[in-house]
Design goal:
The protein is of the alpha/beta class. It contains six helices and eight strands; from the N terminus they run βαβαβαααββαβββ. Helix 1 packs across helix 2.
C-alpha cells in the first residue's frame, strides 16, 4: 500500500486521464453525478471533457462524516509530519474493508428532476464501495431505464462491495487530494 499526495495540477491531470478512459470506451454520459465532497470535485473536472453533460452532486450523510470535520482534528493534522499522516492512513484503509455493511444509516439526496439516459456516478475513491453502491442502487430504483456507470480515481481495498467501471488506480493506492483534512499543499 502506498500514499500519493497530489496538488491541484496533478489532480486535474488524473481527472483528464479518467475522462479519456471513459471517452475511449465510447460512453457518453448526459448526466455526471459527483458524490460530495471529493466526488463533486472529480465530477466537475471530468465534466469538462463532456460539454453536453449536466453535472450535479449528491450528498450522502453519515454520522462518521461529522467526526472527520472536527476542528481539533484538522488543527492536529496540520502540524503532524507527512510520514506520520501516511502511516495513519494505512491502518484506516485496512479497517475499511471490515466495514462493508450496508449504509442504512445514510441519507441520500438525489436530484429528483433527472431525466438522463446515461448517468456517470463519480467519487474520488472507493474504499468499501458502500457509498457508491448506495447511490447507484438509489438511482436504479428511481430511474430504471437509465444506463448507470461509475468512475473513481482510486480503489483502495482489494474487494469492495462494488467496483467502478472506470478508475486510474486499483492497486491499494491511497491519495491525499488537495481538499483532504491532512493535506499540506
Amino acid at each position: 500500500m502506498r500514499v500519493i499526495t497530489v496538488n491541484s495540477t496533478d489532480f486535474q491531470a488524473l481527472c483528464q486521464k479518467l475522462a479519456e478512459r471513459i471517452f475511449s470506451d465510447g460512453y457518453r454520459p448526459d448526466c455526471i453525478i459527483g458524490i460530495r465532497n471529493g466526488g463533486a470535485y472529480v465530477a466537475r473536472e471530468v465534466a469538462k471533457s463532456f460539454s453536453d453533460a449536466v453535472c450535479t452532486e449528491v450528498t450522502v450523510s453519515r454520522p462518521t462524516h461529522k467526526q472527520k470535520n472536527n476542528k481539533w482534528v484538522k488543527s492536529i493534522f496540520r502540524i503532524l509530519p507527512v510520514w506520520l499522516l501516511n502511516a495513519m492512513r494505512m491502518p484506516e484503509s485496512g479497517l475499511a474493508q471490515f466495514r462493508k455493511r450496508a449504509r442504512r444509516d445514510a441519507e441520500i439526496n438525489i436530484p429528483c428532476t433527472l431525466s438522463a439516459k446515461h448517468i456517470l456516478v463519480v467519487d474520488d475513491a472507493i474504499d468499501t464501495g458502500a457509498t457508491m453502491l448506495l447511490v447507484i442502487n438509489t438511482l436504479r430504483e428511481r430511474l430504471p431505464e437509465c444506463e448507470i456507470r461509475s468512475a473513481v480515481v482510486t480503489i483502495t481495498t482489494p474487494s469492495p462491495s462494488v467496483t467502478s467501471n472506470y478508475y486510474i488506480f486499483n492497486n491499494r493506492t491511497l491519495i491525499r487530494f488537495p481538499w483532504a483534512i491532512d493535506s499540506k499543499i
